[in-house]
Write a structure and sequence with these properties.
Blueprint (H helix, E strand, L loop, with lengths): L1 E8 H5 L3 H9 L1 H19 L1 E7 L1 H4 L4 E6 L2 E5 L6 H12 L3 E7 L3 H10 L2 E3 L1 H22 L21 H18 L1
Parallel strand pairs: 1-2, 1-5, 2-4, 5-6
Antiparallel strand pairs: 3-4
């Protein structure tokens, strides 16, 4: 049993988060892609299974369920099926498979329905704060585990295979041996 699942009403979040709302005015497709990227990172960091749901009528796409990764499902509902109704059904189906079911929507009627089905509600604004906090935690974790002296990048050069002060002599020997071979051929 996976610990937690997060179901997200995609358009609800896009139009609630300032960055995505601005982006959606230029390209709704790019806003959806950006949200997917943000939630994939967040889900991976928190260990959540994430289902991102979009109303199909706004996407202009056929209904699909795409497993973007083993822990991330992106859904476009059929025309006439709202993200809310998809999420309600998903909560009911999955309520015994996950310890916690979080649903992100700012729709009050949907929030009440989710609570009645055993889910936990998160507003779009709350999710944004949690995502931002997770980014800070991730940076702190990364800095803590990857200090400058513990991560050492090296160039992939043949010269470092020749020991210390004898590098010049080694190169010269290799060069001369190469010339000897060329002369023999």
């Amino acid at each position: 049993m996976k610990a937690d699942i997060l179901l997200v009403d995609g358009y609800n979040v896009i139009f609630a988060w300032p960055e995505l709302k601005r982006l959606s005015k230029q390209s709704l497709s790019h806003a959806r892609s950006r949200l997917r990227h943000i939630l994939q990172n967040y889900g991976m960091f928190k260990g959540y299974y994430v289902i991102l749901v979009f109303d199909g009528k706004y996407a202009g796409m056929a209904p699909t369920e795409e497993e973007v990764s083993p822990d991330f499902l992106e859904v476009y509902t059929a025309e006439g099926v709202t993200a809310d109704s998809y999420i309600e059904k998903a909560v009911f189906i999955r309520k015994n498979s996950f310890r916690n079911i979080y649903v992100c929507t700012s729709d009050h009627a949907e929030q009440n329905q989710i609570l009645g089905s055993g889910g936990l509600r998160i507003s779009a604004r709350e999710l944004l704060r949690q995502v931002e906090r997770a980014k800070l935690d991730e940076r702190r974790h990364y800095r803590h585990t990857h200090t400058g002296d513990s991560v050492r990048l090296e160039r992939n050069e043949f010269g470092r295979l020749i020991e210390g002060t004898k590098a010049a002599e080694g190169w010269e020997t290799m060069r001369l041996n190469g010339k000897k071979r060329e002369n023999k051929e």
